Fold this protein.
Amino acid sequence: MNNQNIRHALSKIAWAYLLILLNFRINDLDLLPNWAGYLLIFLAIGQLSGELRNLPLLKPFCILLGIAAGVDWLALPLSGAELTGRFFLLSALVACVALYFHFQLLTDLALLADGPGNAPVLARRLRVCRNIDAVLQIAVTLLSILPLPAEEAWVQLPAVLLLLFWLGARVVIAVSLFVLRGFFPPEGAEDA
Amino acid sequence: MDNLWSFLYQTLAVSVAAAVLLIAKRLFLDKLSPRWQYGVWAILALRALLPAGLLGRTLVPGGQVVLEAARMAAEGRLSSALTDLYTPAAVTAPVPLFPHGLPAPGGVTDVLFYLYAVGVLLLALWFFLSYLRLRAALRRGAAPAPETLGQVEGVAARYGLKAPRRVVVLPGLESAFVCGPLAPVLVLPDREVDDKVLLHELLHLHHGDVWAGVGVCALRCLHWCNPLVWICCDRMQNDCEALCDQRVLERLEGEERRAYGVILLSMADDRHARAPGTSSMANGGQNIKRRIAAIARFKRYPSGMALASVGVAVVLAVTCLGGVSGAVEVPGGTDRGALALARAQLNRPTTAAGALDTYAKAILCGSPVYLSMVLPEGAREDAWQAGLAPHDEAELEDALDASPFNELGYRWHRPAWQAEWSVMNLLPDGAGGYTGTLFFSPLSEDDTYGIVYQQVAVQPDGDFWTVEPLGELSVRPDPNQEGIWLCPSSEAPYTTYVTETANLRLEVDVQCRLGVDSTASPTTSGLFSWAASNTLDPVPRPHTGFTWMRDGYGLRLRSVDTGESFALDVSIAPMDADSDPAQALAEGYRVTLEPGGLDDDPVKFSTGTYHGEALSLTAMPAALAVSFNDGGQVYTCTAYPTEVTP
């Protein structure tokens, strides 16, 4: 595996995190669709499979999450609501898959950062962010399932804070992946 | 579970949870550890222990409506002794109960429920007798040879496990197993047993897996006729063995692990007959194939994955145990049929205001379905039958022509006459309910005059409230077309409270008009939105409180001796019959009045209209605290209702 491939794969995953994180909607049409993020991750998994042997195990989940995101992306402008949100059992199963998928993906990327001559500090940061991301994802999922009075301030404030923390964690993950990319210079640059 | 329908509701909830868990386990089959694969079944066990519909939550939104419709369709033709036609199915406990004894079955649903209950008992009995038979067989077993006992103790000591108190050798046995949750016995075949097999059984003993087996038996008994539950129980027992394999492999090294796989393979063709209250390493060829596949995936799952495993389990647990709100939509004004009736029955009014709102909407929409929500049981049958019949447009036309609202020229806006309802003077009836007069008056912007009214009784019925009409709907035209002012007004009902001092007789006429705001703003947008008029929201709000209230007062003060009128300011406050009037005046809702009648200035003799989500003042007070100053002397006394003017 050459560094160029790893660089490209890490760039794709970092951009994918930003795509999944950000939603820019015009008339319910998301111009930064989540399915595009999962497509990028799917392509990156293929590029990193030589370096990280367990990573291809995530392909089925990546396809599943991409399809769910694609269906929701279409359903929102067509019917006014996300399809998975209408079926709470399906929504919970998708949340479980997403939780595992991101956790395992970041675990594998931290292993890449741990590799010889790379960045143990960055690997530690990725693992910490992975844990924070998982905890916040669980909390946000539970908030949407538990019978809490959504209009009460004591629910709204923690919910907004949780979402902000979660967004923050995802931004740190994306930035860390861009930084990690720097540890894999193009072959030409290495020679120089 | 006290009838067939509550059992179906419970087993449906368990089935949905089982299906979700099976899908989740399939998704994470090669991704999460055997500990997770086995531990996640605890969610199903808890689900089976929790009554379906607990705290108004459900796993199948809409499922209860379908079940309720099926119940009403089936029970309507039967005279079931266990099911009340008018009470929605509810699960009070996760086991079959007979709170009213064992009445003779009144229909096929009763027979089926008795059959289910007998099935539970017979299966439990069969499990118990199988266990007793096994224990009896163990009593005939031989004591192990000292070297066998030494081997068992050696394996236990080597792996830091507790040796079993009793070890028995049973001739003809194919594989070792542990028997009995309370006094466990390690049962061995009468041939040499491998250390790894002993380790497997000792680990079952160490982790109390036999107790889990008892739980599985209980689940099989309670849902004996649900094949999905049986599939899950089989998977649970196999997952238990797979977890035990994992625990064994974690304690073995290198070649020993391969040897353990070979031992399992050798058991693939063994006869498999699992007895209740036991755990056995050999559990059938098919299951052993799955376990060998799990061993092929064996790895020490990274400790960091614990967070993801727990997270996935927590999300699944909250989903399967908590569900979503089971609130069912109230049917529309023209909806008919079994599903509409089911939705109506699941939305019976829980407040007096909700009952009145439902009854008023039933009158305005001419909806038998709404009537079935609110009429007392004795009067519900006709509404029920009419609600089951399909909507008939010709019948509606006739009903509209004959309606008192048509007589007064009220506006009809499908599906309801456009009118505002209010209730005057809700008087406690002494049995927890109220009587009062229900008024229908035109919406403020309609060019319509005259009112429709009816005496009603609002009564509690368990957790719900009912409305019983005490007379026919009456029409009061308004020939002057000036509008009929209802409060304060002597034309509307009022109650007179009276008290006397040594030389003064004081009479207070009190009116209280209550209602629920049900007007919907126009939804038309654009050029013509200004021309659109308000309409009535025809859907009842069965759980609402009163949202507006207006009061009216009249005061008369006369000399007891001469009958001469007095002019004094009087403070009054509503209170309970036996409360302290001074305290009520100091702490309660206090109004200061001057003498005058209900027909005098309405602004002067009313404290106004109050709006709120759920007004606490809903009934006429049992008494009034009264205070006035006469010649420097302050009098504080209690006035009781003496006269009701309907």
